[in-house]
Amino acid sequence: MKSSVSTANGQEVPPSVVTKLTVLGATGSIGLNTLEIVRQFPHKFKIEALSCRSSIECLVEQIKEFQPRLVCVDNSEQARELRETFRDRNSGTETEFVWGVEGLIQISSDPEVDLVVAGIVGAAGLQPTYSAVQAGKTVAVANKEPLVMAGELFVQTANKTGAKLLPTDSEHNAIFQALHGEPLEHIARLILTASGGPFRDLPLKEFGKITLAEALSHPNWEMGRKISIDSATMMNKGLEIIEAHWLFNTPVENIDVLMQRESIIHSMARIR
Ligand SMILES: NC(=O)c1ccc[n+]([C@@H]2O[C@H](COP(=O)([O-])OP(=O)(O)OC[C@H]3O[C@@H](n4cnc5c(N)ncnc54)[C@H](OP(=O)(O)O)[C@@H]3O)[C@@H](O)[C@H]2O)c1
């Protein structure tokens, strides 16, 4: 067992106080925000593994800064090129480059990792996020689609393995914080707020003229492209209802959606 861990700022700290992270989708909106937090608290977090699909330039900078032990890319050619790039670099850390779904599963279930940030977009996050749950990790669930696809399996497996599903989508995180440890059986209603997206005031007859740029331009948030489009169509709120149902063991009929244009109140819970 190691007596200390070197963090991103070169500090040596006892392993028990450092949370070791895998960031799935490190080059996306969730991933970049996660790394910003790690940057701010280098004595608390250590990056063990990073992944991306195609933003290799951004990933290279992240590898230089955080010196992860494992990196997963989309294919073997990308992995080979990165191996070449980092071969002669005297970074002090040996990085192993893996690829594809198997690589994502490896970095999600690595025994050294405490916390997996699920920041891949869409269904591609299903297998790696599930493997983190199977491995009993704490999983920061931003990637909502796997819960929508297989929420029951995720919850059942987490109950068996002891994995913790940390609600990271802002609405669900607000509820998680508001509950403050209150047993889930005490929830009477959950109220998810919605800003309404960029077209909340647009008359229906104008919808045919909407451009992609307009749909991507969310009035309150800067996010990845898929979630921005899902927010513009309000589909995102539908996904969030299903996500809340699984995360908080609450029947869908007890979950309401309320328009809160300013996005100041992120969500609410009523307790019995
Ligand atoms: N952004 C937010 O504020 C926010 C808030 C709440 C929930 N979420 C949820 O969090 C998830 C991530 O959203 P995001 O906005 O961060 O998305 P994003 O900016 O599009 O980033 C997606 C990340 O996943 C990687 N990726 C995309 N397709 C992949 C694939 N097929 N295999 C492996 N990696 C892949 C991307 O790599 P490349 O960069 O190389 O393409 C990138 O690192 C989504 O499920 C979203 O609904 C996001």
Description of the structure:
The protein is of the alpha/beta class. It has two domains: 5-167, Rossmann fold; 175-271, no CATH class. Helix content is 39%, strand content 20%. It has ten helices and twelve strands. A seven-stranded parallel β-sheet has the order 6-5-4-3-7-8-9, with helices on both faces. It has a three-stranded mixed β-sheet with strand order 11-10-12, with helices on one face. The protein has a two-stranded antiparallel sheet with strand order 1-2. α5 packs parallel to α6 (145-161). The protein starts with a strand and ends with a strand. The model has no long low-confidence stretch (mean pLDDT 93). Bound molecules: NADP nicotinamide-adenine-dinucleotide phosphate (NAP). NADP nicotinamide-adenine-dinucleotide phosphate binds at residues 25-31, 52-55, 119-121, 124, 142-145, 169-170, 221, 223-227.
Quick overview:
The protein has 272 residues and is an alpha/beta fold.
Task: Throw out a few tags for this protein.
seven-stranded parallel sheet; Rossmann fold; 20% strand; 12 strands; binds NADP nicotinamide-adenine-dinucleotide phosphate; 10 helices; 272 residues; alpha/beta; three-stranded mixed sheet; 2 domains
